[in-house]
Batch of 2 targets.
Target 1
Amino acid sequence: MRARNYFVGAAFALLAGGMAHSAMAQDIKIGEINSYSLLPAFTEPYRKGWQLAVEEINAAGGINGKKLVVISKDDGGKPADAQTAANELVSSEGVAMLTGTFLSNIGLAVSDFANQKKVFFLAAEPLTDAVTWSKGNKYTFRLRPSNYMQAAMLVEAAAKLPAKRWATIAPNYEYGQSAVQVFKKLMSEKRPDIQWVDEQWPPQGKIDAGPVVQAVAAANPEAILNVTFGADLVKLVREGNTRGLFKGREVVSFLTGEPEYLDPLKDETPEGWIVTGYPWYSIKTPEHDAFLKAYQAKYNDYPRLGSIVGYQTIKAAAAILAKAGSTDPEKLIAAAEGLSMPSPFGEITFRKIDHQSTLGAYVGKTALKDGKGVMVDSSYKKGSDYLPSDAEVEKLRPKD
Amino acid sequence: MAFYVVQFLTGLASAASLFLVASGLSIIFGVTRIVNFAHGAFYMIGAYIAFTLTERLSGAFGFWGSIVLAALAVALIGVLVEMVLLRRIYHAPELFQLLATFGLTLMVEDLVVLIWGPDDLVGRRAPGFKGAIDFFGQNIPSYDLFLIVLGPVVLGILWLLFQRTRWGVLVRAATQDRDMVAALGVNQKWLFTSVFAVGVFLAALGGALQIPRDAVHHAMDLRIIVEVFVVVVIGGLGSIVGAFVAAVLVSELNAFGILIFPKISIILVFLVMAVVLIVRPWGLFGKPEAAARKTPGLTVNPWRPLTSNERLASLAALLLAATLPLFAGNYALTVGSEIAIFVIFAVSLHFLMSVGGLASFGHAAYFGLGAYGVAFLAKMAGLPMIVCLLLGPLLGCMGAAVFGFFAVQLSGVYFAMLTLAFAQIVWSIAFQWVSVTGGDNGILGVWPEKWAASPSNFYWLALGVAALVTVALRVMVFSPFGYALRATRDSLLRSEAIGINAKRIQWTAFVIAGTTAGIGGALFAYLKGSVFPDNLGISLSVDALVMVLLGGVETVSGAVIGAIVYKALNIWLVSQTDLSKLVLGGFIVLIVVVFPKGIVGMLEMLAQRRRKSSPPGSPLLAKPIESAE
């Protein structure tokens, strides 16, 4: 908490109004928004990640000699509150750019705000394809691999499975719906012979796992696509294990390899699921080693995927600000388009065509090791290899 | 065939966990008339404490002992809450206790994260109930079978408790007529405390029993609380058997419903409740509520229009508010606009709740409909802003006309729950109908036109509309229609006896309130530039209730102050701290204890007391002024 207060700075900025600005004229301020109170399991590691990045950047002399300050706000999981926060950051804190957000609808709300107010926005986490495609705009960039990219990575592995009868389980909201839709589309393109025999749409956060598992089992699929995560995933896995749903069936699952979602499963981790995730324990690259060492030294804890996202978001923001040499949004956009930079996962580039970064994800299989869930046989999938052709992207994205 | 049997049994297991929590809520409501919003919080704490204990204590005895111990510990917390907090406010206006328990819930959500950390926790499986039993090739988890047996056992124990013990007789008597029980010399204090303890015990037990199959996390409470309310209402308030039947009904409909409509779960309970309440206004096993004895507050302190001085003061306050753009920055102005919009929203609910005596739990539906109305008109028809603002609220008006017609047939908590059901149905339409509403990704790009785009112009617009709406509703309160509406609130029988068509008056009030909320929603869409299903959601409805209660439900315009205080505080806290829920919850609890009549209600009482205690000359002096109004 203490560290945060430091970054937040003026507790009475609201009262002091403009006075605070002149005092810190030499600093470059970034406004950061996320669902800290609603999704602490993801956003706590995320916060640690970006705080580490801020520390590193300032230790290395800041941005073109100016100190970087991140002002962070909670959106409580509500798009309307996220906009209030964005407004405060832009109007009264005078930040150079906005970053952050987790939920897709909040990402879209802030992106629309950025477009309207002509502010640079770097979306960290929201996965919906709409952020960069159907509702994309010139002020918005995104770091994390989108729904489409993660689906394409999974499809590559899933299409090799012999299974022909597939069932899907996904949370009933935009993320689940579009994940299933893209997966089905890409899968059917590669494997016209497969059948979709059942789909279950439990409400997000409220899965009644017993009946859902039973219903899927009744359709007798050979393979299952799972999109649930968090507490829903725990319930699904527990019921599925007891009822033998996963026995003799292949399972392909979005995000399950991320420590945030895998670790709570402990000894109930199902084995052999094909998942996207972040096996921090088995990544052996110099870039990641450096990140891991710094993170563990600072927090005495291992990083989650959120830590990577938070860390790289601020690193990317700093790289863009440094290249632009200005806080003018148009110059920031020009600087960001096509900009390449190092990341713990290797070099990434913000594409000019749709403002999506080429950060990738790890795909592997789940396994049990010493009573804990881990990802094995994992390999890094570069984001750039899993995006549709430029011609297709241009059709998807409205003209600026 | 075996599949259907197993699916049925699975449904029964879900019903059992639902029933445990619901029965507790039902008992508490039956006796104390408290709408215990914190019931979900107790459920959650039960699960957290049970998690900690089962991790420490090993073996079969350790596990089951931990479950019971956790439930007892939470019951103790419940007793503490009842004695320290709720006892002070039993005599406050109806629903005020809801505010207190809402504040508690907010606090608990942050506290569990502080104590147990942000990660999802997965507890142990129950010793002896780890596997599954084979039933003609289908697996039934043995823990499910345990729950299936436990449900009826708890029902049986409760039945014995209520039918065969003196305590049970008293509880049933109090459920029927608590004033009479008090008049007969029963110590109500301890009766209420014990009932509250039993109810909380059941909630915590329900939570603790979830750890072998669920993850323990800080949002468990919200996941269960609404559903449990619905179950209690479907069954009939205060009826344990009803709660059991309703839990089974809802769970089985869900278990089989998803086989045909996999997306049904999101709305099923609310559909069932709407149907049940329209057909059986008091739930399946409920009895018509005895006419409640009104708290005397309303008759002792009759409403009056503002005096000329007060009018001048209000006008001055409005003018002062209008000067904000002269010295405040853009952010403050946008916050100001948001507060003004919530004033509109709060006074619209206040009109229904305080003047009409109809507390709606789903008022956000009409706010959101207004917002969606604007979004449709602006994005699809491309109409100019003024036209959208004028026509958008009509969607709220239409919604209120349709749903209000059914809702006003009911009263009290049943009315509240039916409005909640309708709101949830509207919400799920907005959520599911992706091709029209954009689903939860909402409709973007609904920004104001140039003339209203600057924060100061928009602020003046919002402030102006808010002032107009508040004045219009006040005028209505003191119009013949307002008197008729208040008559139906104070005594339905007498008002009908003098020829007031009560249902039509209430329906009209509902439509007025809904349209007004729609005006707020229309402005809100332009303020935010986007519309999301959130704008129709439960949390917004709860916000409105809190604003009205905070201001004072027995006042004429307390909602204005309630909205300003709550919204400003909320925005400020969210901006300043991650523990905004803890602080806000604490603040609400404090307000409840210090101002049991709401902020404005308390100020009025103080003003009156001052008037009374002033020298004997002044009452005489005050009289002619009052009659001159």
Note: Chain B touches chain A through 79 residues (CB under 8 Å).
Target 2
Amino acid sequence: MLSVSAAKKQRRDLKQYSAEQRVKFKRSIPLLLMFLPAIVYFVVFKYVPMLGLQIAFRNYFLMDGIWKSPWVGLDNFRFLLSSGQTLNTIRNTFVLGILGVLVSFPIPILIALLFNEVRSRAYKNLVQSFYYLPHFLSWVVVGGIFTGIFALDSGIINHLTEKLFGFRYAYLYNEGSWIAVFLSARIWKEGGFSAIIYLAALTNVPPELYEAAAMDGAGKFKRIIHITLPSIIPTIITMLIINMGKVMEIGFDQVYTMQNDVVSNVSEVISTYVYKIGLGRGQFSLSTAMGLFESAVSLTLVLITNAIAKRFDKGLW
Amino acid sequence: MKTTKGERTFYAINYVILTLGALLCLLPFLHVASQSLSSYRANTSGLVGIWPVELNVDAYKQLFQGTRILPSLFNSVQITVIGTLLSMVFTVMAAYPLSRRHFWGRKFFMKAIVFTMLFNGGMIPTYLNMRSLGLVNTYGALWLLNLINPYNMIIMRSFFEEMPQEMIDATKIDGSTEMQTLWYIILPLSLPVMVTVGMFYLIWYWDLFQGVLIYITDTKKYNLVVLVNQLINQNDILDKLNRRSSSAMAVQISPDMIRAAGIMTMVIPIVSIYPFLQKYFVKGVMIGSVKG
């Protein structure tokens, strides 16, 4: 008896629920109409291309199109993981990506901590504007500035070292120094601007904490380490998750504008390779497989980082 | 609070480090600007530091008379202005419904949009899709590449959500339609977020490089970024310029000069709206970081 009435109640709840949903839907019709372009846009330009990913498992022919080209299973991926050139490209992507995160991640935190200790508002505003400016420039500009400064025979660095110490160095044509120039360009462009997020987080630290700590005799450094840093840990973790997702997609623009043939052994990355063999040489299936590999790895990295962060109750979702 | 001796040293070191950093940000600009304004002789013998030597504007003259920089500047303006307007209209129309608490399917739509931030078809499938729609070699491809940017949309939605819902409900009782509520109530109160997101789009379109390389095949349709990249990397443009000048004006320019002048043409518009940019970008990043 009890179970029958429970089932009845459940059915009644369900009916009520679906009725509520219908009312909600009806009331939402004007909003849905307004939202319709967004639905169309995301379906046609974001989700339909995802269907196109299937050509990674086909041998794409222009005449056959995405849906009729012959299936080849994992052949494209097998090729990617067996050819020296593609393996090298994958390795470069990881190396530049991981170095990029390792080197460029702590800098904005450091800059934010330093700015947080500045007391003159006018100085802070003026100096901050210099730090933010490079962010707004295209990589073509930043890449052009850096390759110009470090150029072998016309760069200002080599002019100076020749005058002072009598030597020139081919910064852009040695693999190690090219990577160093590459990473410094990235720090120069984004280091200052990325500090904004940490500065925003720092404004929320209650000043009483500092006063209490000072009362207890904690010095400047102790206060930074025990109060300032812990209070921005959630922001640091969020930024780390976001950055992990970007390990694989070190921007096309930066690599494309800074690379040269001499160092292509370390400078060719997945996105530039996909562009060159996909659009340049029409190898659509192979380059799509490479792109899919990249997206899959970066999605996995984001999910793993988020899962780890969740363990400490700091997950993004 | 009294400052101790240790604290004073700390502040001094802090100021020194931050000032050095600011110089590091600034000096490369001064150097490039000086290169573009110095003579051929000064440039090729490495005399140019952070101040123009033998001041002249030959590089700019050559750049504007001998290359396609003016048409490409016009293309950039066209791509940027139309693109920003389109993006703003469609981003508002996506953000407003998603900000309403009782919008049917709100959670699902939100998830579907956020998913595209984590995973997408990638370069080649997106290209094939654009091609099958006949958009290759049109600016339409560039405008549709990032018409509704999920990050910008979320910033806008967060701002709309902060508005008192009772106020919006009250307009409903008065019988205004959703479109009227959006137009007369929400938008006039949303100026800060509109400017912020508008700036994000503006910079995105202005700096657009990869998209143009992929989708635009007609060199006459290139934007300023792609043209400047050609100036930096292709010496034949310079050879052509020098040949032209040796016959007509007898001014010689070095690769550094034309490169520097091209870079400055990209930089100057950004620097001239920079005070405005900085104010709103900082705000936008903060809204985004709170809600992110």
Note: Chain A touches chain B through 90 residues (CB under 8 Å).
